[in-house]
Specification:
270 residues, alpha+beta, Creatine Amidinohydrolase, globular
């Protein structure tokens, strides 16, 4: 049996959080391999092969593969693809592209889930800034994961930072989620909204925080493959994600190799 609070949100014991951390580290290490592998001429399918081998070599299972029929171990979303891009070998990455890589793994029944957006070679300043703002918005949201804070404080911090940096589109229908014995659990974690709303955060909660920002409109559509989400105006999108545990000491970033220490220290001083 796994404990849930009155809102139906799974609450982990310290020992269970250790299991979550082990799964998170598999994902974190895999994404670092993929970051290093991104280069002009590489295909998204090449990255998928690397990911599946890395995950299985650690005794884990890719959580995306077969999930609601999804055919791959990672999501690989290039340029105007927001999320859920299916990796294939029909196109090679080109200098100046950006690619969002979303990766999940199951280890001993616990899930880890994280995403990064990576430049392919040299990219233009507008794309560099898009990635910077999206990642920083994620960290602003993560910093809100403290006992006694409200769920909506996360999305409020993400939106507040994104709006302060420019006119970025924030897709309203996509966001983060609870995570634990399943990849997607209650609660839904919006990337926008007013603070002080929703359930109070408690030690032992685990949430995936994952902002997506678009260079243009916030409007999106799903392609004919029934998975790939793209921007309506064809402009680029970036996506970052970490799985995070709420603890009495503050957020513990389960999918960051250092637990989030270096970046959270920077956020908390600004």
């Amino acid at each position: 049996m796994f404990k849930k609070n009155k809102h139906g949100i799974q609450i982990k014991t310290p020992e269970q959080l250790d299991g979550m951390r082990a799964a998170g580290l598999v994902v974190g290490r895999t994404l670092e391999l993929l970051r290093a592998a991104v280069a002009p001429g590489v295909t998204p399918l090449d990255l998928d092969v690397i990911a599946e081998k890395a995950i299985r070599d650690e005794g884990a299972v890719p959580s995306f593969k077969g999930y609601q029929g999804y055919p791959a171990s990672i999501c690989a979303s290039v340029n105007s693809e927001v999320v859920h891009g299916i990796p294939g070998d029909g196109r090679k990455l080109r200098e100046g592209d950006i690619i969002s890589i979303d990766c999940g793994a199951i280890l001993a029944g616990w899930h880890g889930d994280s995403a990064i957006t990576v430049p392919v070679g040299e990219v233009g300043p507008e794309l560099t800034e898009l990635m910077r703002v999206t990642e920083e918005a994620m960290w602003r949201g993560i910093a809100a994961l403290r006992p006694g804070a409200h769920l909506s404080d996360i999305g409020h911090q993400i939106e507040k930072y994104a709006r302060s940096q420019g006119r970025y589109g924030i897709p309203q229908e996509y966001g983060g989620h609870g995570i634990g014995t399943e990849m997607h659990m209650d609660p839904w974690v919006a990337n926008h909204g007013r603070p002080g709303r929703g359930p109070k955060l408690e030690a032992g909660m685990c949430l995936a925080v994952e902002p997506m920002l678009n260079l243009g409109t916030d409007r999106t559509r799903v392609l004919a493959d029934d998975w790939t989400v793209v921007t309506m105006d064809g402009k680029a999108s970036a996506h970052f994600e970490h799985s995070v545990a709420v603890t009495e000491q503050g957020p513990w970033v389960l999918t960051a190799l250092d637990g989030g220490e270096s970046r959270l220290g920077t956020v908390n001083r600004t």
